From TrEMBL:
<dbReference type="InterPro" id="IPR004811">
    <property type="entry name" value="RelA/Spo_fam"/>
</dbReference>
<dbReference type="Pfam" id="PF13291">
    <property type="entry name" value="ACT_4"/>
</dbReference>
<dbReference type="InterPro" id="IPR007685">
    <property type="entry name" value="RelA_SpoT"/>
</dbReference>
<feature type="domain" description="TGS">
    <location>
        <begin position="405"/>
        <end position="466"/>
    </location>
</feature>
<dbReference type="Pfam" id="PF02824">
    <property type="entry name" value="TGS"/>
</dbReference>
<dbReference type="InterPro" id="IPR033655">
    <property type="entry name" value="TGS_RelA/SpoT"/>
</dbReference>
<dbReference type="Pfam" id="PF19296">
    <property type="entry name" value="RelA_AH_RIS"/>
</dbReference>
<dbReference type="Pfam" id="PF04607">
    <property type="entry name" value="RelA_SpoT"/>
</dbReference>
<comment type="function">
    <text>In eubacteria ppGpp (guanosine 3'-diphosphate 5'-diphosphate) is a mediator of the stringent response that coordinates a variety of cellular activities in response to changes in nutritional abundance.</text>
</comment>
<dbReference type="InterPro" id="IPR003607">
    <property type="entry name" value="HD/PDEase_dom"/>
</dbReference>
<dbReference type="InterPro" id="IPR043519">
    <property type="entry name" value="NT_sf"/>
</dbReference>
<dbReference type="Pfam" id="PF13328">
    <property type="entry name" value="HD_4"/>
</dbReference>
<dbReference type="InterPro" id="IPR045600">
    <property type="entry name" value="RelA/SpoT_AH_RIS"/>
</dbReference>
<dbReference type="InterPro" id="IPR004095">
    <property type="entry name" value="TGS"/>
</dbReference>
<dbReference type="InterPro" id="IPR045865">
    <property type="entry name" value="ACT-like_dom_sf"/>
</dbReference>
<dbReference type="InterPro" id="IPR012675">
    <property type="entry name" value="Beta-grasp_dom_sf"/>
</dbReference>
<dbReference type="InterPro" id="IPR002912">
    <property type="entry name" value="ACT_dom"/>
</dbReference>
Length: 741
C-alpha cells in the first residue's frame, strides 16, 4: 500500500491552483477570479475520493488541463472554468443542469460537448467514433470544446506511463489518428509536435529512445554550428537596424523518424535535423517587406535551394499560419532550413488562431477571427448535417478534411482557392458550387482540356465544363478528396441508394430466414465482415444492386458451421473489453488477462495477421475480429492506427512466450553494388551459416546497383537481427531493411 502524505498533497494542489490564477491574471475581468475559485472548489470536492492510475489525486488532472488551456493555447476564463469541471458530470453525481445553474449556459454547453456518451452501442459501432461525432456537433457552435479536448488529451499523453500497455496503445493511436491532425488544423504546432513525439514514445519506444539519444549526442556540435552559421546574419541585420531574435531548434523526434522511414535512411543521413528561426519585431504594415528583406540578407551569405522556398506570407495556410521558409547550403556542406517571420506570426504559429479567436465574451475590437478556420468549421457543419452513415464512416470523411498540405489554384477571373493537396478538377467544381460540381464533365486547366480526375497543382487556373445531362455516380467518390465534394455527391446518390439499401435488407432478411439464422445486429455485423464491406448499409446496398449475389450468402452459413466444428474453443464475439477479459479469465484462470502467444493455441483461437507478419520479439497486440477469432498485429502494423483508434474496445494485451522454435515468415530488402558471386554469398549466409529456409528471392540489377527481396523463415527478432548482422558483412551490401508485405 502506498503511503500518502495528505498535507503535502493539499499544499501541492494549492500550489498548482495558484500557478493557474497567476498565469490567467492578464486575461481576467472583474469577477472572473471568483468564478474560477468556485469551479476549483466544486471540482476538488467532487473528485476528492478519486485517484489517477499513477496514485496522484485526480484533481491534478483538471488543474493541468486548465493550465494547458491558459499557458499553451491562450484561452480565457470561460475555458478555465470548463477545463476545471470537464470530468465532473462524467465521473460524479453532478448533472449538466447543476453546472448550468451554477456556472451558466455557455460552460454547460462546452462540458456537454466534452462528456462521453454512455450506454451500449450497436454491434460493430465504435464508442470512440460516436463520442467524437458528438464532440464535433458542439464544435460548430463553440471551437473551445475541441481546444479543451486537445488540452485534456495532451495531459493524458503526458501521464500515459502509468497506464497498462494495451491502454497506452489505444490512447496513443487514437491521439495520432485524430487529435494530432486536429491540433495541426487549428494551428497548434507545438502541441501537435509533442503529441506525435509521445505517440512514438509509447508505440515504438526503442526507436524513440534511439533518436532522442542521437539528438542529445549531437547537441554540442549542433550549437557550435548554429552559432557559426548565424553570426554573419546577425551582424548584417543589426547593421540594417532590425529588431530581431534568432533561435535554433532541432526537428521533432517524430518528424526525424518520419523522414528516416519515408526515405529509408539512417539518422545520420537526415540532412535538415534542425531549423533556424528569425523573428522580427516590426509594424504590421511593413511585415511582408521586412521578411523579404531578411530573406535577401540570408541568401547573400548562403545559397538557397530554389525547390525549397515556401512563401506562406503572401498566401497564408488556411489555418492562419504565416512564415517564409527557405533551405540554404551552409559553408560546411549541410542544408539548413531558415524560417523568417514576425513576432505576431510566431505567436499564431506557436499557439494557433485559438489565441485570437473571436469569442462572444471577448472584446471583438481586439480579436480578428480567421476566415480560413471559419470556412473549415462551415465545412465540418456541412459534413455533420449530410452524414447519415456510421460514426466510423464519418470519422474517415472528417480525417480527410484535416489536410496538412495545400494547393493554391485560381478561377478564370483570378480568385484564389485553397484546396487540400491531391484535389482534382471535380473537387474544384464542387468548391465553386454544388450545381457546377453535379454537372461537371471536365475542365480546362491552364487552357488545356483535362478529365474530372485531373489532380491540381499550385498556380493552376481552372475553368469547369458542365453539361445538363451529367449526374453524379458512385465512382465520383473515388475521384474527390474534399469532404465538401464527398458530402454533396453522397447527397445526390442518397435517394437512389436508400431504395437499394431497403431492397438489400429485405433480401438478406429473407435469405437468413431460409437458412434458419436469426436476423439481428450480431449476424449482420458478421455478414458485413465476411463480405468485407465497411458498414452494414454498404453490405445491404451491394446485395440490393446485385453486386453481392443473394445465393453467395449461403457461403457465409457454411463458413459459420465450419467454425463451429473446430475443436478449439473460441471467445464469443465481444462488445467491450471487460466482457472479453472475463471470458479470457474463465478460460485461463483468474490471474491471466492477456494472451500468451505460443502457449494459448489450445485455449484460444488466434492467428497471426498477414498485413504485418509478426514474429516472436515484435511488440504486438491482439485484436478480436468478428469472424476469424483473434488476430495478432505488430504495433507498427500499417493498419494498427485505425484498429486501435476506432475499435480500442476490441484490443487485448498479448505477448510472446519462450516457446519451442517455430518458423515465422519475414521479409528483407537488400541494396548493394553488384558483383559476380554476390547472390551466392548472400544465400550461403542464409542457408549454410544460420540454417534458415528461404521461401522466395527476387533480384534486380541495374547499372551496377543490386536490389533484392528475400522472404525467409526465422524464429524471432533476435534470430532476424543476427541474420541481418551477418548479411551486412557481405562485400558490396550497403543497406538491409525489414519490410511488410
Amino acid at each position: 500500500m502506498i503511503q500518502v502524505d495528505l498535507e503535502e498533497e493539499r499544499k501541492e494542489i494549492l500550489k498548482r491552483y495558484r500557478k493557474l490564477l497567476r498565469l490567467a491574471k492578464p486575461l481576467l475581468k472583474p469577477g472572473d477570479a471568483k468564478v474560477i475559485k468556485k469551479a476549483f472548489n466544486v471540482s476538488n470536492e467532487a473528485h476528492k475520493e478519486m485517484r489517477r492510475k499513477s496514485g496522484e489525486p485526480y484533481i491534478y488532472h483538471p488543474l493541468e488541463v486548465a493550465l494547458v488551456c491558459v499557458e499553451e493555447i491562450g484561452l480565457g476564463p470561460t475555458s478555465i472554468v470548463a477545463a476545471l469541471l470537464h470530468d465532473v458530470v462524467e465521473d460524479t453525481e453532478w448533472e449538466l443542469e447543476d453546472i448550468e445553474r451554477e456556472f451558466g449556459v455557455k460552460v454547460a454547453q462546452i462540458i456537454d460537448g466534452l462528456t462521453k456518451i454512455s450506454g451500449v452501442f450497436d454491434y460493430g459501432s465504435s464508442q470512440q467514433a460516436e463520442n467524437f461525432r458528438k464532440m464535433l456537433l458542439t464544435l460548430s457552435d463553440d471551437v473551445r470544446v475541441i481546444l479543451i479536448k486537445i488540452a485534456d488529451r495532451l495531459n493524458n499523453m503526458r501521464t500515459l506511463g502509468s497506464m497498462p500497455r494495451h491502454k497506452q496503445l489505444k490512447i496513443a493511436s487514437e491521439t495520432m489518428y485524430l487529435y494530432a491532425p486536429l491540433a495541426h488544423r487549428l494551428g497548434l504546432y507545438t502541441i501537435k509536435s509533442e503529441l506525435e513525439d509521445l505517440y512514438l514514445k509509447y508505440t515504438e519506444s526503442d526507436t524513440y529512445t534511439f533518436i532522442v539519444e542521437k539528438i542529445n549526442e549531437t547537441r554540442l556540435s549542433r550549437n557550435k554550428f548554429i552559432k557559426t552559421f548565424i553570426t554573419p546574419i546577425e551582424d548584417e541585420l543589426r547593421d540594417q537596424g532590425f529588431d530581431f531574435s534568432i533561435k535554433g531548434r532541432p526537428k521533432s523526434v517524430y518528424s526525424i523518424y518520419n523522414k528516416m522511414k519515408k526515405q529509408n535512411i539512417p539518422f545520420e543521413e537526415v540532412y535538415d535535423l534542425f531549423a533556424i528561426r528569425i523573428i522580427l519585431n516590426c509594424d504590421l504594415e511593413s511585415e511582408k517587406a521586412d521578411c523579404w528583406q531578411v530573406y535577401s540578407v540570408v541568401t547573400d551569405f548562403y545559397r538557397p535551394n530554389p525547390d525549397r522556398l515556401r512563401d506562406w506570407i503572401s498566401t497564408p495556410r488556411s489555418n492562419g499560419y504565416e512564415s517564409l521558409h527557405t533551405t540554404v547550403m551552409s559553408n560546411t556542406g549541410q542544408w539548413v532550413e531558415v524560417q523568417i517571420r514576425t513576432q505576431r506570426m510566431d505567436d499564431i504559429a506557436e499557439r494557433g488562431y485559438a489565441a485570437h479567436w473571436k469569442y462572444k465574451d471577448r472584446d471583438s475590437a481586439t480579436a480578428k477571427p480567421s476566415t480560413g478556420l471559419d470556412d473549415w468549421i462551415t465545412q465540418v457543419r456541412t459534413l455533420l448535417e449530410s452524414n447519415d452513415g456510421s460514426a466510423i464512416e464519418f470519422m474517415d470523411d472528417f480525417r480527410g478534411n484535416l489536410f496538412h498540405d495545400e494547393v493554391f489554384v485560381f478561377t478564370p477571373k483570378g480568385d484564389l482557392k485553397v484546396m487540400p493537396f491531391g484535389s482534382t478538377a471535380l473537387d474544384f467544381a464542387f468548391e465553386i458550387h454544388t450545381e457546377v460540381g453535379a454537372k461537371c464533365i471536365g475542365a480546362k486547366v491552364n487552357q488545356k482540356l483535362v478529365s474530372i480526375n485531373h489532380k491540381l497543382k499550385n498556380g493552376d487556373q481552372v475553368e469547369i465544363l458542365t453539361s445538363n445531362k451529367q449526374k453524379p455516380t458512385e465512382d465520383w467518390l473515388n475521384v474527390v478528396v474534399t469532404s465538401r465534394a464527398k458530402a454533396k455527391i453522397k447527397d445526390a446518390l442518397r435517394e437512389e441508394k436508400r431504395s437499394s439499401i431497403l431492397d438489400g435488407r429485405e433480401i438478406v432478411q429473407r435469405k437468413l430466414k431460409q437458412m434458419k439464422l436469426d436476423f439481428n445486429s450480431e449476424t449482420v455485423e458478421q455478414l458485413r465482415a465476411f463480405f468485407e464491406t465497411k458498414t452494414a448499409n454498404e453490405f445491404y446496398y451491394k446485395v440490393g444492386k446485385g453486386i453481392i449475389e443473394s445465393t453467395s450468402i449461403k457461403g457465409f452459413k457454411d463458413f459459420k458451421d465450419d467454425k463451429r466444428q473446430k475443436s478449439k474453443p473460441t471467445l464469443e464475439v465481444v462488445k467491450d473489453e471487460s466482457s472479453f477479459t472475463k471470458q479470457l479469465k474463465s478460460l485461463k484462470g483468474p490471474d491471466h488477462d492477456q494472451l500468451l502467444i505460443g502457449e494459448d493455441m489450445d485455449v484460444v483461437d488466434y492467428i497471426l495477421a498477414k498485413c504485418c507478419n509478426p514474429i516472436p520479439g515484435d511488440d504486438v497486440f491482439g485484436f478480436v475480429t468478428v469472424n476469424e477469432g483473434i488476430k495478432i498485429h505488430r504495433t507498427s502494423c500499417p493498419n494498427a492506427l485505425e484498429l486501435l483508434s476506432n475499435h480500442g474496445n476490441r484490443v487485448i494485451k498479448a505477448k510472446w512466450t519462450s516457446q519451442q522454435e517455430i518458423a515465422f515468415l519475414a521479409g528483407l530488402r537488400i541494396v548493394g553494388t553488384d558483383r559476380v558471386g554476390l547472390i551466392n554469398d548472400v544465400t550461403k549466409v542464409i542457408s549454410n551459416e544460420l540454417k534458415v529456409n528461404m521461401r522466395s528471392i527476387t533480384v534486380d540489377s541495374d547499372a551496377g546497383i543490386f536490389e533484392g527481396t528475400i522472404k525467409l523463415y526465422v524464429h524471432s527478432t533476435q534470430h532476424l537481427e543476427k541474420l541481418v548482422g551477418n548479411l551486412s558483412k557481405v562485400e558490396g551490401i550497403i543497406k538491409i531493411t525489414r519490410f511488410d508485405y
